[in-house]
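Re: the pair you flagged

First of the two:
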Amino acid sequence: MQWLKWNGNLLWQVNGGTPTRDLQVDMGTGWPRREIVIEAQGNRYANSFRGVRSFDKVVTAELVVSPIYEPIKRNMEAEYRQWENWHNEFIGLAVLQVMMEGGTLLELDAIAHTPIWRDMGYSAKRVEQSWTSPSKYWRSVTEKSAAGAFNGAVPVAISCTNAGTVPAWLRIDITGVVDTPKLQVGDHVIELRLDMTHANDNTAIVCTPPATVVFTPNGGPAEAAFGYHTSVSTFTLFQLPAGATTDVTLTASSGTATVTLYWYDWFGTN
């Protein structure tokens, strides 16, 4: 690791880049802890495997904080206050960022825990800082995108590459004229009973749980449109497979609205 940042603040940098803070330990940066889900059956000799559930990722760093300039005590107090302010309870969900040895930047959406301090004499303290991520996985800094357009009932394929090690949920933007738009990736479908009749009509879909659909008609207010989906729609399963190039196929009853697909590359470990 080359550096560690929290909410834009540089916590630690390699080769003395943060002379008053020295990273001693970092834990929890790999794949999140998981639980195997087994369901008991009527037959006592055999149960059923239902899947694997990932726990929230917890990343922990331990650093020694030691001012290098006089007055030591006053500067130690300043370092302490600064760290506490960087990790105060009102920040909420923010970004933990790391730069890896090869220069790759990865980010983790997380919430900071209360720092735990231990005195190490007059001129140094050891701080244990943890962050919990409900999203569980590291992501690329830059959001990727690919675009295309409906051609009525004629299938149109948009090619998308997920370079991560975790399936990637899509964010979908549909703009223009289209009736009953349908998107498919693998066996999973999103189909909406919407008739978009104006060139500036827009539908924004977020597949990340909890999934949302927002329809904004030309000149009108945005409205929640999740209820317009058909029974075949599977929003939270609408993902790009990990480490693969996959086609997202567009069809509709009619119309030629444009579609832009957005996603991040997600990684189980940094």
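Second of the two:
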Amino acid sequence: MSITLLCLVKGNTLANAFPVDIEKDQLVGHLKKVIKAENPQTFANVDVKDIKLWKVEIGGDHLDDQLKNLKLNGSDELSAINEIGDYWTEKPPKKHIHVLVEPPVTTTASNEVLELREKLASLQALLNKSVHGTVRCCCESETNEELQVDREHRKNSMREMEKPPALENDGAVLNIINDSGKFSPRNDQDLRKILQLFVSNVNLKFTVLIETPSKPFNEWTFPKVCELYGLSDDPNPSIDVYPVFSCGSADLSSEQSKAVVKHLLAELKLRQKTTPLDMTYEATKSIYSYCYLASGVSFYDEKIKIIPEKLITGHNGQGNLDYAIECRSTNRVVGLVEVKRDDFKQGFAQATVQMESSLTCRKRKVNEIDDSYGLDKVWGIVTDAEKWYFMECMLDGEGKPSFKLSEPVIVVYKDENLQAKVEKVLGHIVWLLEEAQKPMEASQSGEGSREIKRSKSLSKIVGK
């Protein structure tokens, strides 16, 4: 006697159910053969003996909901040596699922699993590099996987291919999202379990997020910074890796300049009396350094301001600057100051990442308004209030940073030559402030098409 059994592969919806006609005196093993023949793609490369069949009775309304929540613990697994009639002595009920078919987990969607392994290898390679922002990988069981990365990320990834992996394992976070929720594997074992869960549920559509948070500026070491920006691969590099920055000096011979110098000297002498320059305290050095900055900015106090502890976040670093020199009209950082107690290499490392971060942060914000606006330079100062180093960071046409470092200017506060050295430091600061304003002034004088383009964009920002 022949009966009709309505079968469904585990994980599929009711729309994929299929009928099988079979004699009651035939074995369950025969039923497996018929099911495989009815579904050649689903069971490609699957041995009949590895297919599991379960007797179920699922009927009524909302069958798909019942299938989602189905537990097989209390169901009968059909034994290959038994006859069909051993399980269905009477005619099976209509409009019910009678047999749930379970393919072997290890071979389910084998082609997709192979593709997933390839993509995971690619993701692991990305984890071993500096990855900025977020990578989204969408994997679907019915189509080839697509790695969807926005244009800016592709550009950054290509640049990173040319750099040593300075950010290797520096805090990358992996998150996986699908219809079931968000999963955050913290090791290889967790990742394996999550992928096995997806495969067992035939759920091969998910999103992978790889996030590499930028780390604090003060965690960067000088060798790591040299490696990151391609300055040197020496494990103990010297400061000679920087090209020399020929920092200009402003003319301080005017009456206004002489008055500013006189006031600065008076401020420094007052601090010597009240707060001696103690080599062990960075805070004391900051008090002295601020006098120079305030004196320099006083020439342009309507255009430039000093922002202590300004927060900057870039691709490679984030944190508060000791001092930011900021344009009042655009709020863009034109210069920054890193005050150190004694470790100048560490100071150069921090200032280098700070300058690059201030430029990339600035360009992101400006580009939202006008892509043609291309301010691509910032300067930095590293000092302990006695030694003064001046730095420059520029971005080329492809957004790659380059850096320069000046020879030091040394101020000895108990030296009879104090005024000359103070004037030299102040002259450099004022010159840098003048240079920072040139893009704005060039448009008014008509100098150069590139400068005019910048200033046109600047006027748009000011007008908003």
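The domain at 2-105 is CATH 3.10.20.90 (Ubiquitin-like (UB roll)).

-B.
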